[in-house]
Amino acid sequence: MDLTLIGYLPKRVERPADWLPDMPSIDQICSVGDCFSPAPEDRIIFWKHNAMWLYDDETTAMSVVSPELRHEFTLFAYKIFPFLFNDKDQKTFNIPELQVTPLSQGYTLIGYDAVSWSGGTGFNHSPLSCNLRAPDYKVNRYCLVETLEEAITMAKDFSTGGGELGSYFVFEVWKRNR
Fold first, then answer.
1. Neighbouring C-beta atoms of residue 42, cutoff 10 Å
2. What residues does each domain of the chain span?
3. Which of 53, 75, 110, 169 could join 176 in a cystine, given CB atoms 3.0 to 4.6 angstroms apart?
């Protein structure tokens, strides 16, 4: 099953604090959710995002970051699995028509995430970091899992109460090389 590129987002990548002392292999939180590695605080007020609350190209994505702060942000690109999970049920998710610029060679695939969405202004929480579920799965240094299959298993698990409320989506996470 092909995943669909849905956009770009700059984030301020954080290192894990003492909240995951048993996970020394994690050195960056690159989850899709904003809880630990946030997107620009006021990005929505510019109203430049697409229907998936991301940006169609790198230039637009970085334009919501103040020029003097851009060095603090890392650019990510996200692909989504076209299904959502609710109480372990897999349902088709119709991705809106988007005009996203194709991913350039300057990105590296760093893993997969399962993230809640309850509507609103973007995706909500990644239980791996937000609900301290990383020790329950084999995660990489970015607090993500390595395969689509693992992420689907997580999304099903989280959708039954193993994370935040809401439907769960599976993302492929790409990080812009510096």
1. 9
2. 4-176
3. 75
